[in-house]
Amino acid sequence: MKNQLKNQLPLQCRTGHNQSFEIVKLNELSGDYCAIYSIRFIGDDESLFEQFLSEYYKTFRDEVLDIYTRLKAIGRCVGLREGFYKANEGKPGDGVCALYDRPDAHLRVYFIYYGKDLIVVGDGGEKPKSIRTWQEDPALTDANLLMQWVSKKIKEATDDKDIRITDQGFEGDLIIEVED
User: Fold this and answer.
1) Is residue 101 part of a domain?
2) Edge to edge, what strands does the sheet with 118-126 contain?
């Protein structure tokens, strides 16, 4: 599904996406320590994070389970702490980060940081050990730029007071309409 979506997007959509989306809470990961959300584009059945899990489960089963388990621990046991993630993976101030992987891991997943108790998990991909930065890989570039774009749209919605960030997570109209 994710690749189909990416294939439908024109090149300019690498810096902007032309579809409306909903911010959805991942209840199975969220808990008292961190509310964990993802993005579901209108018309899709799965969130970006669910698509990531589905796409990489067969090839990288153990790593997918590790990412899922770490996010569940962040939500229910410990919250998001420094050392769990690499900050500043996007533009200054957009909050795009990467969940740290194990040294031998192949997968990277991006999220938007709104504090130790609120994150929006998105897409990611395989990070070959032969590259140093996400900009060197087209799939990671697409995933990262998409999260930067989502961060910008959420910021616009909070500035317009359509969405509020509270101790409990997001409140308000969690469907973000995108004009063509």
Assistant:
1) yes
2) 85-86, 96-99, 107-113, 118-126, 35-41, 21-25, 175-176
- Dihedral (Cα; 137, 146, 24, 70), 10-degree rounding: 30
Indicate whether 2 belongs to any domain: no
- Structurally, how many domains does the chain consist of? 1
Instruction: Please give the residue range of the domain that contains residue 166.
Output: 36-175
**Tens of pLDDT along 138-155?**
788 888 899 999 999 999
Question: Do the beta carbons of residue 107 and residue 127 sit within 8 Å?
Answer: yes
DSSP labels, 74-139: IIIII---TTSEE--SSSTTS-EEEE---TT--EEEEEEESSTTEEEEEEEEE--TT-SSGGGSHH
Any idea which residue has 């991942």 for tokens? Answer: 26
- pTM of the prediction? 0.86
Q: Which of 39, 155, 161 is nearest to 94 (CA)?
A: 155
Q: How many residues are present in the chain?
A: 180
User: Can you tell me which residue has the tokens 């890989």?
Assistant: 137
Taking residue 117's Cβ as centre, other Cβ atoms within 10 Å add up to: 19
Res. 90 pLDDT band, cuts 50 70 90: confident
Task: From 55, 51, 62, select the one nearest 26 (Cα to Cα).
Answer: 51
Closest C-alpha among 33, 39, 53 to residue 96: 39
